[in-house]
């Protein structure tokens, strides 16, 4: 069962989300953080959250600033804003009477989930195909980054959409450092990654695991591509996460 929700972002504009609610007994609640420009309805987000709901864990997945159904300008976001909005999402869930026990993040959202975990005060964090360095996304917009830095902004076409890349966005991403966030997480961390990921290499998982403190776990998603588009791969990741998180559900 899905329910649409709206809540204010950390910068003011309203964010739109979908709450995937378990049909039967509710074991707990979580927030899903999507990848760089993917949105709440991308296959990885939708399939993982629906499977987690089927496993009894209700999930909120929401569009980042300026993407799909959320208000605002994507260019006014950044890694810092994504992290803050993740914390805001957990507070929204608590205020509606469904406090969050876990954060699940995919790709760039996995890095954001790790960075937000401590402030969000969740019981556990799950990262899927996450980069160890958030600035690795710059290669996606390297064709326009110089113009954005010189002129203050530049239009960037991605997936048939026109987004505005801004100098502040670029500079924020370049400053982003996951090292301190991983070591200070102080939460159980499950790292999932495919050894054949051609977008974010498996070495990123190794680096996050090396920096993390126990309890930490790693699961190899053999056969999966970065976006988890192969049949059953997103659902498999969700089932693994649902089993692993059991001791940490509030």
Structure notes:
GO terms for molecular function: carboxylic ester hydrolase activity. The protein has 250 residues and is of the alpha/beta class. It has eight helices and ten strands. The chain has a single domain, classed as Alpha/Beta hydrolase fold, catalytic domain (Rossmann fold), CATH 3.40.50.1820. 34% of the residues lie in helices and 23% in strands. It has an eight-stranded mixed sheet with strand order 1-2-4-3-5-6-9-10, sandwiched between helices. Strands 7-8 form a two-stranded antiparallel ribbon. Helix 1 packs across helix 8, helix 2 crosses helix 3 (108-120) and helix 4 (145-151) crosses helix 5 (167-175). It is globular, with a radius of gyration of 17 Å. The model has no long low-confidence stretch (mean pLDDT 96).
Topology:
Elements: E1 2-8, E2 14-20, E3 28-33, H1 43-54, E4 57-62, H2 79-95, E5 102-106, H3 108-120, E6 124-128, H4 145-151, E7 153-158, E8 161-166, H5 167-175, H6 179-183, E9 189-193, H7 202-211, E10 216-220, H8 233-244
Helix pairs in contact: 1-8, 2-3, 4-5
Domain AB hydrolase-1: 31-230
Pfam family, one: Abhydrolase_6
InterPro entries: AB_hydrolase_1, AB_hydrolase_Est10, AB_hydrolase_fold
Characteristic key phrases:
250 residues; alpha/beta; Rossmann fold; 8-stranded mixed sheet; two-stranded antiparallel ribbon; 8 helices; 23% strand; globular; AB_hydrolase_fold
